[in-house]
Design brief:
Blueprint: E1 22-23, H1 25-42, E2 48-52, E3 58-62, E4 65-69, E5 72-78, E6 92-100, E7 107-111, E8 114-115, E9 117-118, H2 134-148, H3 151-154, E10 156-162, H4 166-170, E11 180-181, E12 183-184, E13 192-193, H5 199-214, E14 219-223, H6 226-235, E15 244-246, H7 251-260, E16 265-270, H8 272-279, H9 294-303, H10 308-316, H11 320-329, H12 333-351, E17 357-363, E18 369-374
Parallel strand pairs: 7-10, 8-12, 14-15, 14-16, 16-17
Antiparallel strand pairs: 1-13, 2-3, 4-5, 5-6, 6-10, 9-11, 17-18
């Protein structure tokens, strides 16, 4: 074993913030519906309920609140997202289950207050219906049916999922841009939330492109975060808001979906660091995945006439920001970022070939415009 200390990469600290998993809104909604159904069946909502997750696990949930009155029962389960930073952590997933006389065997699912309403196509959900995704829908019905017993022999059951405060929670998400208004989405394909999960973010990128396409848009603008998105929106004011998609680190998912949806124009809004990663051909540009290619940065510096000593410094620096700031101080910011953008365009078109036209918009670390580079300039 080497005595050399392990190199600490940017982002490693984040990996130590906790690894306790939690539960999705879908899993909590299904468990609350199961508890309310038991309450309707027995006359008393249990203090805890074992819910069946989509991944096959059986998990015990504490029931925060429950009551039965006449032909309706209510149960509330508080979402615990574990160590994942989640806008819906602590949400009270509430299920009201009531009898539907004469509708034997039927389970009707509705969205109540705090659950968003779908207003745009492209989500795989009925426009005008509740934003409860297909897997949670099935899971809620399965959990209700598993315990309903004699309730379904002559009657049906109406299950209404609501989330007090859901409309405020939704303001911290991208729901409005996806056309989900008035509340949160009920989500989850496994029932489990993994801390700092990438799967949910990647899925949201794909979903956002699908929504843009369904609205008839033929352009999509991929940005790597909030600052670069604000910058890109300023540069492309004529495009619909749905065209702007924060892809984060998920370059491959973004481009593959854009190609699948036959987008004619793809724009990238980014800063030097992520552009360098794209120039490297990385499918995922997160710092944990791969170090920055300093040789690529040094080549760009050399291309725009930087002195050999500075080129060597860039080759030994840890960040793209070092190169960007040093070259900006020499008045070479535009030329350097143009060279970087050209490399990124060539790499992206090689990795994700298609008939779309690619344009790169580059901003500095304050979100200020530096340069716009068209695909033709990278030929």
């Amino acid at each position: 074993m080497s005595d050399t200390p392990a190199k600490v990469r940017k982002g490693d600290g984040k990996r130590q913030r906790g690894n306790r998993s939690g539960f999705t809104t879908g899993a909590c909604a299904a468990a609350s519906a199961r508890a309310a159904t038991l309450g309707l069946l027995t006359g008393e909502v249990p203090a805890s309920v074992v819910g069946h997750l989509p991944n096959g696990q059986e998990v015990s949930f504490a029931v925060e609140e429950g009551h039965v009155e006449l032909d309706m029962a209510r149960a509330v389960i508080v979402k615990d997202a574990g160590d994942d930073p989640d806008a819906t952590n602590g949400a009270h997933l509430t299920a009201d289950v009531r009898r539907l006389p004469g509708a034997a065997g039927q389970i009707v699912l509705k969205g109540g207050a705090g659950v968003g309403t779908v207003t745009k196509e492209g989500l795989g959900l009925e426009v005008g219906g509740p934003a409860i995704n297909p897997v949670p829908r099935r899971n809620i019905a399965d959990n209700v049916r598993a315990v309903a017993g004699s309730l379904l022999e002559n009657d049906g059951l109406e299950v209404t999922i609501s989330v007090p405060g859901g409309e405020e929670m939704a303001q911290k998400t991208l729901n409005a841009r996806l056309g989900i208004l008035g509340g949160i989405s009920i989500l989850g394909t496994t029932g489990i939330v993994r801390p700092y999960s990438t799967a949910a973010f990647r899925a949201s990128v794909v979903q956002a492109v699908d929504v843009a396409a369904k609205q008839g848009n033929t352009s999509v603008v991929f940005t790597t975060g909030g600052r670069s998105e604000k910058f890109a929106m300023q540069q492309l004011p004529d495009l619909d808001e749905a065209c702007f998609v924060q892809m984060g680190d998920f370059v491959k998912a973004a481009f593959q979906t854009a190609i699948k949806r036959k987008m004619a124009n793809v724009y990238i809004g980014a800063m030097a660091g992520k552009l360098t990663k794209m120039g490297q051909g990385l499918a995922v540009t997160h710092a944990w995945k791969a170090a920055i290619d300093r040789d690529l940065l040094a080549d760009c510096a050399q291309e725009v006439g930087a002195e050999p000593a500075l080129i060597e410094e860039i080759r030994n620096a840890e960040t793209a920001r070092f190169a960007a700031e040093r070259l900006a101080a020499l008045g070479l910011a535009v030329e350097f970022h143009r060279a970087l953008a050209r490399k990124a365009i060539r790499s992206l078109k090689a990795c994700y070939p298609g008939p779309y036209r690619l344009t790169v918009l580059v901003c500095d670390f304050d979100g200020e415009f530096i340069v716009r580079v068209e695909e033709e300039e990278a030929q």
